[in-house]
Amino acid sequence: MELGYVAAGGHLVIVDTLGWRTLFPAFRLNPATATVDHLARPVPLERRRDVTVSVHLHRKGWGARGEAVLRRTRAIWHRGSGLDVFLGPKARSIRVPWRGELAKVRRPFFALEAPIKDHLKRAGAHGGSPCVVWLERSTVRGCRRSGRSVEVYAVERKEFSDFILGRLRATIEFGSEEDAAAFSEGLPPLTAPAELDRTIQPDITRSKRVVWTPKTLAIAVGLLLFSGFVTAGTVAGLLEGKYLDVARVLLPLAAGLVVVAAALHLLLRVRRREFLDLVDKWPRVLCERWGADYRTQAARASDLLRSMDVRTGPDLSAVDAYLRSLPPEAFYGTLALQVGLMAIDRLIRLVGREVDAWWEYLPDRRECAFRVEAAGLRLYPLTAVMTLWQQRDPEGLDPFVRTYARELQLRLAFHETLPAFVALGFTSPGWEAFSKFAPRVDGELAGRGRVRLHRRDDVAVRERVLECGSVQLVLVEETAAEDSGDRLVPTSAFPFLTRPATAELKVDPTEDPDRHLAVLPLGGAGDHLIAWFPPAAARAAETAHGTMPFEICGVVEAARTLAHLETAGDGTRIPLVSSEGPDGDGANSALNHVTARVVGVSEGVNALNDSRLWLLTLDLGNLQLPLAARGDIWQQPPRPGEVFDGAIWIFLRLPSPG
Fold first, then answer.
1. In the chain, N or C: fewer CB atoms in 10 Å?
2. For position 588, what pLDDT does the model report?
3. Distance in angstroms (rounded) separating the CA atoms of residues 300 and 561
4. pLDDT at 409 over 60
5. Which of 85, 89, 77 is nearest to 37 (CA)?
6. Contact at 8 Å (CB) between 164 and 200?
7. Can you give the pLDDT at residue 649?
8. pLDDT tens digits for 467-525?
9. Strand 591-606 and strand 517-521: pairing?
10. Dihedrals phi, psi of 444, to nearest 5 degrees
11. Beta strands at 358-362 and 164-173: parallel, antiparallel or unpaired
12. Cα(261)–Cα(341) distance, rounded to whole angstroms?
């Protein structure tokens, strides 16, 4: 339930019980014809009967005494689908301050000022402004009828959201019991108002207690002392006969005291606990709540748009066209946020895999960001809707969703192995460099990539391979989650050598939830290595008994060359290996430290960017391991017989099918 009035042009101004006024040009009321338009779409209303209505605010619950926020006034009852509107004769029947700073009409949450500022100038209440009781039936928590009188217990919302400002009780007196019964039909019955208090908790504390701070106290005392000194000085001057024209002295004094009293009243009102609580929580709580439950809000936005004959689905181009058709001044943030969350929902469904994301409220922007930490990505859905609706952004939501869905797919696919790609010179460190690298990779794979298809237990895994001279870039695609079709989406990526080693190996998949890590025992070459392997290899290893053939290679992160040694520096015989293990951090969980003899060296190339590589082969006892290292890692490459000492990533995959 909301209170308000009809401003010039028929626009709705909501007046909440704290005194804030918010203009909503999205809603246009015509009391003469009893019509309501929402976003230029008519909402059918039926004019019913004359009634008498009053509204009370219950700060301590419906079981306690309330305070009047709408004086008992005559009104005309209008009924629509899920909506009752009561139009009274005077806006000032609403008991809030009508002068001063609090009487200023403000724009809706997140709306730009430029499109609405002309309407704000004409949004003040005048003598003929009708008051409005806006009662959506979804806000009603209980109803009690006695003869021709009906008491409605409903929550007060902030800007048509589910942010609850308080508990309201409307008392409506109808002309007949039949009208009262018709109004009450379908509303939840109520016997004891106090029982509702346990089910409803406002989002702010409705306390009028003033929160004093040293600054507030100093300002209040200063105002009182100033007014006291001026008054005392004026009175003393009058008694001493200094002023001959008393009226010319008292009138300015009275005006000054009124200004001081108004300033003190405003100060004490904005320092109430309820006011400070609202400033602290709005819109932060709403953004966090809706972000955590974004799919519910997406469904609500979709239902609303469909009720306006706007098609919603994976393709949001119809939504783009509709938002561009709306007047810029009709924007309001709560609806825009729901539409933005619908766009994020579509984006995640397009990504087609589980996304570990969270919502971050940004006080400086007054909105929540959709954040995927693993991919270094932060999106602003509310800003995307606002720029389309109010600034006619040519991109639109549909390209926004598709662009960032692909960006997120690739970032999530590469995030575990990106350091290895950097080590081979494919790209520079950081997600900003990756954003330039990813479109090129996408285009190259589409143009000249070849496909390796693995199928096991009716599960298809596709590896798209980009040949880059001595190395390969492999993008793994699997069936999209929550998708009834056979759409394949990127899930991981890894670099590989064009000429890897093939060996019969026994691998033990770790309990990694993504199944990308395996323990590779090396017998006499030390304890074990940790290898990264794609889903197809992981599934095969899970069902294998004993050894099975794998292709294997490594990528050098950092290394040094030692002399012709038979032992490591601490006297331990080489080869020697150790690893971060599956509990390591990110890509480092597949990073191994290896000290081993070099048995082969040649020069290679990363043809994607024409950079030089060194191709090495290490003797790990029962395994000859090929490695690739960027050309600038050594001034002179190690020679056969010398000892390699460094950090490497190990990659496994299944041999080519067939």
1. C
2. 52
3. 63
4. yes
5. 85
6. yes
7. 94
8. 999 999 999 999 998 776 789 999 999 999 999 999 988 887 766 555 588 888 876 54
9. unpaired
10. -65, -40
11. unpaired
12. 46
The pair phi, psi for residue 335, each rounded to 5°, is -70, -40
Partners of 333 in the β-ladder: none
The residues spanned by each domain of the chain are 2-198, 214-271, 284-412, 418-494, 498-653
Torsion over CA: 122, 124, 130, 136 (sign): positive
DSSP assignment, residue 297?
Answer: H
Using DSSP bridges, classify how beta strands 508-509 and 517-521 pair: parallel, antiparallel or unpaired. antiparallel
How far apart are the C-alpha atoms of 612 and 632, rounded to whole Å? 8
Locate tokens 């001044």: which residue? 329
CA distances from 319 to 49, 348, 373, 379, 573 (A): 38, 18, 29, 19, 68
Place of tokens 């009104």: 75
- DSSP per position, 544-584: --S-EEEEEEEEEEEEEEE-S-SB-TTSPBSPEEEE--TTS
Q: β-pairing, 2-6 with 11-15?
A: antiparallel
- Which DSSP helix (H) or strand (E) runs through 518? strand 517-521
Q: What is the DSSP code (8-state) at residue 94? A: B
3-23 pLDDT, tens digit per residue, is 999 999 999 999 999 999 999
**Each residue of 123-178: pLDDT tens digit?**
999 888 999 999 999 999 999 999 999 999 999 999 999 999 999 999 999 999 99
